[in-house]
Design goal:
single chain; alpha/beta; Jelly Rolls; Immunoglobulin-like; TIM Barrel; 3 domains; 8-stranded parallel β-sheet; 6-stranded antiparallel β-sheet; 34 strands; about 15% helix; about 30% strand
């Protein structure tokens, strides 16, 4: 009888929580929205490149309040918000605008498991847009600015037995200031979308020993046949021994060790298996420092450029020419905005991109949760990673090398750009799929281009740098990137760098059953059926083939999905309809991807 009572109480509590949440509004939803469990929201481990065995997910229903800037901690709340969905999103259950004149307050309680008592406890945030202040039990534990990168605090001294109170305050001006924001604006229209404010990635707790691994940088070198692992700990000591095991599945194939805070250089066995879109093989890693052990993974792969026998500078993967071809991927969701409803949904876009025959994705002015990059690593999808744009723009001279005057940012704006760009590169450094860093898109917020590109190249010599995709062009970095809509066109060529088509396409079709707004839709060109869209896509693809022979070394098609009122996606915004003939598109895409290797 007692067990039945416990089950009844738990069931009642679950139903009570569910009753406090439902998606807000009546706009377009994905099929994954109905699969959300408020008691188990995004339950997957959030940092796959550095995994420990224990953690506690803090996603779920939190109290929230929206108050004018400068008000004290609220004593009453406006209701419940589903974390980690932005307050403007349907899946938050709130769908309210924040605005720069207000602050968003979050509050919840948590209990630290009793078996963590001999450990430090870290509080992690996947991403919070834009400025976050955090308290545990009314003790200020930290502050962070930047909407795209993870951050954490050691909250051990603030904890107590039993229930602990967690409070987060967020301010986000969106496009009112200089902050990197990507496509977010306070007045959405055309290619500009709904603001995203507050917590939009997983919040979680993690127990660690007194001395623990804070970060790792994993660098493969196929020419030297090594994997180098740089490990940083919270308390660096010369006597600490770092050990790295490299495994093929569960079989150890190589081991390396170091002391005196030196990187661990692991010599790999002869003829290691190389990572590629056709064979995305990953080695498992196990990294140990004293009592701390983390699991990770790595790929043996190399990104570079080289002049071919016709004198054209080509992009290379593993010292072989490869035409990199993929869609512009915005990473927006009609119900979750920046946040996919489930991990299955997050993975779906990568799977479909692979199904369409592409080998690359350009992640456009947004940074994704870590698991998205893991999916790209596992599925074999090369990634070009944009810096989210911000501030204001100079004049734009896209069809010639720049002869104008670069925009001067304020010292605060410049310092913030550099801080956030460095944090993004450091956050994503060890994910093998990332091939190219893109500091600027078009001329959006473009400044000190040569200096920023040179710094990026110095900070990460293992990857290529695309200075400004379709922006103001300078003789710097690894490629010249042109944008042209709708059809491909080569109007500039650089004989010293790779010449790439960073955006083209934008073939639109407003599928009436799957629109964000029924009467305000656009694409660069508009058609009325899947067959028409597919025919136009293939026409452009055949044109592109000729331009590859003339000198293009990569291309990016706009775009993966419709986004808000943009209807130029290969899929509808809700991912319910593939808008092209998949088999015909896959065939021509594979021909393009293999054009330099056949």
């Amino acid at each position: 009888m007692k067990s039945k009572l416990i089950v009844f109480i738990l069931l009642t509590a679950t139903l009570s929580l569910s009753a406090q949440w439902k998606p807000a509004g009546d706009r377009l939803k994905t099929r994954w929205a109905s699969q959300i469990d408020v008691n188990n929201v995004l339950p997957e481990y959030p940092r796959p490149i550095m995994e420990r065995s224990q953690w506690q997910n803090l996603n779920g229903l939190w109290n929230y309040a929206i108050l004018p800037v400068g008000k004290q901690t609220p004593t009453t709340f406006d209701g419940k918000i589903l974390v980690p969905f932005a307050v403007e999103s349907s899946l938050s259950g709130v769908q309210k605008r924040l605005g720069g004149e207000n602050e968003l307050w979050y509050q919840r309680e948590f209990t630290v498991p009793s078996n963590w008592k001999n450990n430090r406890v870290l509080l992690h945030f996947g991403a919070v847009d834009w400025k976050a202040d955090v308290w545990v039990n009314d003790i200020k534990v930290g502050q962070h600015t930047g909407g795209y990168t993870p951050f954490s605090f050691d909250v051990t001294p603030a904890l107590k037995s039993g229930a602990n109170k967690l409070v987060v305050k967020v301010w986000d001006g969106t496009d009112q200031g200089y902050q990197p924001r990507g496509k977010q604006v306070n007045n959405p229209h055309g290619i500009w979308y709904t603001p995203v404010s507050g917590i939009w990635q997983t919040v979680w707790l993690e127990p660690v020993p007194e001395k623990y691994i804070e970060n790792m940088k994993i660098t493969p070198d196929i020419d030297k046949n090594t994997i180098t692992v740089e490990v940083s700990t919270n308390q660096a000591s010369a006597s600490d021994k770092i050990e790295v095991k490299v495994m093929d599945g569960s079989r150890v194939v190589a081991v390396g060790q170091s002391i005196n805070n030196q990187p661990v250089e692991v010599s790999m066995p002869a003829n290691p298996r190389l990572w590629s879109p056709d064979d995305p093989f990953l080695y498992n890693l196990e990294v140990t420092v004293l009592n701390d052990k983390v699991k990770s993974y790595a790929a043996m792969r190399k990104y570079s450029t080289k002049r071919d026998d016709k004198g054209i500078v080509r992009l290379q993967l593993n010292n072989k020419d490869l035409f990199q071809f993929g869609p512009l991927d915005q990473g927006w969701w009609p119900d979750g905005l920046y946040t996919a409803p489930t991990d299955e949904a997050l993975k779906y876009d990568v799977v479909k991109t692979k199904d369409f025959g592409f080998n690359m994705i350009r992640k456009h002015v947004k940074v994704e949760p870590a698991r998205w990059y893991m999916h790209c690593d596992q599925l074999g999808m090369i990634v070009w990673q944009d810096m989210p744009s911000g501030d204001r723009s100079p004049e734009w001279q896209m069809r010639e090398y720049f002869t104008g005057v670069e925009r001067l940012r304020s010292p605060e704006s410049e310092a913030n750009y550099r801080k956030e760009w460095k944090e993004i590169i450091d956050y994503l450094y060890s994910y093998p799929s990332i091939a190219v860093w893109v500091p600027f898109n078009e001329a959006w917020g473009q400044f000190k281009t040569q200096e920023i590109v040179e710094w990026t190249k110095q900070h990460d010599p293992s990857r290529l740098v695309n200075p400004a995709s379709g922006g103001n062009h300078y003789h710097t970095g690894d490629m010249l990137d042109l944008h042209h809509y709708p059809q491909p066109e080569m109007f500039l060529y650089d004989g010293q760098r790779a010449t790439v088509l960073g955006e083209y396409g934008g073939i639109g079709w407003a599928n009436k059953e799957h629109l964000w707004e029924p009467d305000r839709n656009w694409g660069y060109v508009q058609f009325n059926s899947s067959n028409e869209v597919t025919n136009e896509y293939i026409k452009y693809a055949e044109q592109l083939k000729q331009m590859i022979r003339q000198g293009f070394s990569a291309a990016v098609y706009t775009q993966t999905t419709d986004v808000e009122v943009e209807v130029n996606g290969l899929m509808t915004y809700d991912r319910a309809v593939v808008k092209i003939d998949e088999s015909r598109v896959r065939k021509v895409n594979q021909e393009i991807c293999n054009i330099l290797t056949d």
